[in-house]
Amino acid sequence: MTDALQNLWTAYEAAAATGGALCARGGDPDRWTAEEWAAGGVSIDTRTLKPGDIFVALRDARDGHEFLKNAFEAGATAALVAHAPEDAPEGAPLLVVGDTLEGLRDLALAARTRNFGKRIAVTGSAGKTSTKEILRAVLGAAGSVHAADKSFNNHWGVPLTLARLPMRADFGVFEIGMNHPGEITPLTGLVRPHAAIVTTVAAAHLEFFSSLEEIAEAKAEIFTGLAPGGVAVLPRDNDFFELLKTRAGEAGAASFVSFGETDGADFQLLEYAAEGAGARLKVKIKGEIRAFSVGVPGRHQALNMLAALAAADAVGAPLGPAIDTLADIAPAEGRGARTSFPVYGGEATLIDESYNANPASMAAAIGLLGASAPAPGGRRIAVLGEMLELGPQAPALHANLSKALVAARVDRVYAAGQLMRHLWDALPPQMRGLYAGDAVGLVGPVCDAVAAGDIVMVKGSNASKVSAVARALKDSVKKDED
Ligand SMILES: Nc1ncnc2c1ncn2[C@@H]1O[C@H](COP(=O)(O)OP(=O)(O)OP(=O)(O)O)[C@@H](O)[C@H]1O
Ligand SMILES: [Mg+2]
């Protein structure tokens, strides 16, 4: 490949895209000199910046302009700035624009326009990152795929991911999230997806919405950005399927494709069975029955896979090779990964779901624990932190988990945080392991309580810090190996 193709942005391309001024700070503060450069990537964070990146000085929690020196020390090729601070290193190439977030969006738009691949956007109350990672795998069988390594789904994460889209990528996958109505519209308008997926609509961020229907309306915004001829990928089992379909039609979707367990879904899950660390699926895809093994467990993940296959098919990726990749995928960190760890007299299994939680993903994770059989003599143990951002319904949503835990034949529940008190009080007494005010209080008792053959599932919102329990259990693996 020539340098021109390896470089993501040359100085002049970036200047043309943003309308910014190329300059560098000389010895004389009033003198500016244009510099020519070529960057291999785009970064907004000096801690993860790679040598050769353009550093975009965003004003967010902190002002990125304060970190220009660090950025160049870390090897930045140039910086996109709104002004040159006094401590901007001398001679460091700058691209000065009126507003750096606007500048990042301009780069994103230019990256999209010069790429002739297909773009897929994913939103939903849960499963966005999981589906993005599944898409990375299934599309990889058909061409080169660009997707963010992290859950970059907000007002800067989406433009950042798009600004990094290589000119020659065959596919781009974009996770789009929201906390408020109206947030998805500008992001999907920037991405202009050829296929847009809504994974599910469920209670999440209820604090900012008065009803689930409002959440569905907000998710449906994703269809407003569809490119001409674009396909809407819809969750057939969801209460808001019809609403989503109507909104997709109004937004100009050229066609619809559905996934789910409900009869009539175009990509239908017929049977799910746990198999090793993953699962075996029987599905009906556009009338044809297929059975195959997948590397990630959970009925919810199987549905994410069907959503991904539907979208991949919609953008022209052949299904056979796409399905073949599913055997080799692994759960993303904190989203169902399994680890065995030594305990007195044998081994126990951790299902790490600690990345985040809302009622939909909590129900899915409890289902996953229910579908996993402990070794002889072992128990199903749920370690639960609070689900946050649920507004006034939060206590009831926590108490309600009791039914799912009973249905999943969970033996012991360890719960932390004020809201989990509502679950604790609702639990049948024989299921109560321990309640603690915060997750740290569970670490020691859970580590002590786990016995040979147990399966421990850890789940809670990020801020509940329940991941500390998962970490402690995993650390016991490391200690043993040392
Ligand atoms: N379709 C689904 N339904 C319910 N729960 C799911 C689904 N897919 C994934 N989950 C669970 O939800 C949690 C979060 O998964 P994931 O990171 O994929 O979601 P996300 O939508 O990207 O979340 P975030 O909004 O935090 O970015 C994980 O515990 C995962 O196992
Ligand atoms: Mg995510």
Number of helices: 17
Bound molecules: adenosine-5'-triphosphate, magnesium ion
Strand content: 15-25%
Determine the fraction of residues in helical runs and give it as a percent range. 25-40%
CATH architectural name of the largest domain:
3-Layer(aba) Sandwich
Question: What's the layout of helices and strands?
Answer:
Blueprint: H1 3-6, E1 9-10, H2 11-18, E2 21-24, E3 38-39, E4 41-43, E5 53-56, H3 68-73, E6 78-81, E7 93-96, H4 100-114, E8 118-123, H5 128-140, E9 145-147, H6 157-163, E10 171-175, H7 184-191, E11 195-198, H8 212-220, E12 231-235, H9 241-250, E13 255-260, E14 267-275, E15 278-285, E16 288-294, H10 299-314, H11 319-325, E17 337-343, E18 346-353, H12 359-370, E19 380-384, H13 394-399, H14 401-407, E20 412-416, H15 420-426, E21 432-436, H16 440-449, E22 455-459, H17 467-481
Parallel strand pairs: 4-5, 5-6, 6-7, 8-10, 8-11, 9-10, 11-12, 12-13, 13-14, 18-22, 19-20, 19-22, 20-21
Antiparallel strand pairs: 1-3, 2-7, 14-15, 15-16, 17-18
Helix pairs in contact: 4-6, 5-10, 5-11, 8-9, 12-14, 16-17
The chain binds adenosine-5'-triphosphate and magnesium ion.
